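Issue 218. Parser rejects a valid record. Input:
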Amino acid sequence: MQTFTYKATNSTGKVINGTLEASETKDAVARLQDMGYIPIRIAPANGRRWLDTDLLKTLSLFQGVSTRDVVTFTQDLSTLLGAGLPVDRALTILIDVQDNERFKDVIKDILKTVQGGSYLSDALGKHPRVFSTFYVNMVRAGEAGSVLESVLDRLSIFLENSEELRDYIRSSMVYPLFLVFVGGISIIVLLTFVVPKFSLIFSDMGQAIPASARFLLGLSDILRNYWFIFLGGLGALYYFFRRYIRTPAGRLKMDQYKMRLPVSGDFVRKVETARFARTLGTLTNSGVPILQALKLVTGVMGNQVIALSMVHVYDRVKEGERLSKPLSDLSVFPSLAIQIITVGEETGKLDEMLLRVAENYEKIVRNMIKKFVSLLEPTMILAMGLIVGFIVISMLMAIFSMNEMPF
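Output the parser choked on:
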């Protein structure tokens, strides 16, 4: 038996916190339902806890609304609607259980809009920084088909899978970035504190030193005396580069360059394949018409080259062609993904096949990242070692050359 913490609501809408013992999560849910409660959140007692403390609420004022907040909100809303509660009552309960004060204000505004007679999708659309166009259109499709709770359930799965992939990429890059930081600091210390001490020795001797040592001494002098110009130049370069790639033309140019590179191009294609399949599969599985779904997919794609290509796919599908044909002609998506989509069209299970493609390529992307990181770590260690070794050997060569000085 395990101990679970839970948040639930009773028939009057009162939020109840507590713990109970059960063999697994589904048994805990069944016990709460037998007690007349509607479960909102359940987790093992030694796992994640929901802390309704003044400190947590104060800290939440300094943070924005994260994807995790939106995922939890979507899951909870799906649970409450599935239990038969109306939208306004479900939102009222979610305001009470929300820890993030900023998100609580957003939900309050959504509730106010819904109570004013608007659809939930229209209320969500008033907060584009929290709920994307894709999210709002999914909810709108659920409202139109009277399957809002099931659409929210699929939407939470989609958001969770997307967040897991992003988290995996971020966590995989922590150690390599740490290596770059430590290695960079070590090299700067050598050039600004260690190498200058040799400069005094060599200048006193008046002897010609090897070119590599002269280069290091010159670089050290620049870093020590003109570091503000160096940092300012790097900062300006970064600033103008960021401004350029944020423009439509700059972003398109950057995405084209990424696609041309041998390794990154293949990686981008697989990432976009997973994203395309996951989004389109979720939309079609929720009852969104294929043409409307393709329009929404265009806004979700991260690479602008592929996003612009979706316009041609949309036009050809609108003319009556099968989806797999224009996708194949793009020469962007892998042939295996196209074949699976073709099978889905032939069997009438396009949404299922798209979701299967998404799962397959998400696994492939994870494996590619894992291999890349496993190669990146020793490569970076080797590169840092070579740079430090170059500095040490250059200084030693200069010292050895002093033996050739006449006495």
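Fixed in the parser; the record now loads. The chain has 18 helices and three strands.
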